[in-house]
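Sync notes, pocket subgroup
Present: LS, DG
LS reminded everyone that the earlier model was apo-only. Rerun requested with pyridoxal-5'-phosphate included. Inputs:
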Amino acid sequence: MNTKIYFDNAATTALCSEALEEMLPYFQQHYGNPSSIHSFGRTAKAAVEKARKIVAGALHCSTSEIFFTGSGTESNNTILKGAVQYLGVQRIITSAVEHHCVLHSAEFLQSTGTELQLVKVDALGRPDIQHLEILLSNSSKKTLVSLMHANNELGTITDIKAVGELCDKYGALFHSDTVQTVGYFHINLQETKAHFISGSAHKFHGPKGTGFVFIRGGTLTQPLLHGGAQERNMRAGTENVAGIVGLGKALQVAVDNIPDNREQVYHLKQYAMQQLTELLPGVAFNGDTSAEGSNYKVLNVLFPFHPKAELLLFNLDMAGIAASGGSACSSGSEKGSHVLMAIGADPTRKAIRFSFSKYNTKAEIDRLISELVKLFAPAKTSATTV
Ligand code: PLP
């Protein structure tokens, strides 16, 4: 019996053992509320602050600029809605390939009077920087630009340093959804002129339900959630102490190992690309697949026409291989991918996102390829092999 294979690491990742070990005492032993002043509370508070230090160290910013949240979704909502509500932002510029938590927040704000403009994206899913400059120069309205670092469906990377420079030139605020890149790429906030970025622990082998937002030097000081004074009045609600501890440890492990992880995982992606190209005629790839221009963990494959292509994800699942069609955050929904639509990908062909991690192996890629070759075999051959 073959063991199952998990190729959906852009949707979520397995918790690393280092993070689990660090988290465990915070469930039954150090369970104090960080807002309490007794020793239990102080222990919990110290753990939260230690994690904050790790995040700030990893991103080259101050601990006072890091706020823990419940998810990447919450972080992105906090920034977009906070910018309009508290910072006088009258216009949001984003792109059609953003994650729904950005796009739907922007659309909600549009419904309440904020201007929304979409910067063009090219066939790989990269924002058109010249178009962004035209949009920025065309209006004096206070503007927030929100463009993601790496696309979750395609893996395509945006040069957020260049976007930051441009926003700076026109006095616009810049938010980048870095949920898919924190822990995978070195992000230096001394060099990248972003006012806000967001992260989510479960994308880098930390626990689910814990995220953070970076807010540059007091740019935004009012919360989305009102209540207690947690997170220096920026995010009410008792902290998920174990989650935050796990986020800190997972990020530490991830950042310390970026070069090795990158080499190992990119090697798997390259191998998968090479094998698919060789053994499945007509296969193509969506998004940027280059070493420099893409997230090394994501590979979006456009399959050739075949009667079995329609049920490909289902068939792979039956074979014990988990992957995702479009964005896994909306997997299960029958709606097509807004990202693939935005880049003009062939809507009649099946696209599947495979996303790899350090826990995957070359042997697993071999099994994937062999299943795909079986599935895509001409009808006559497949009848004898099924
Ligand atoms: N932003 C991007 C690019 C994502 O890929 C995701 C999750 O898939 C999110 C935001 C949302 O993160 P969370 O699952 O922590 O809400």
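DG: The chain has two domains: 5-13+257-375, 17-256.
LS: The first helix runs from residue 17 to 23.
Action: DG to write up.
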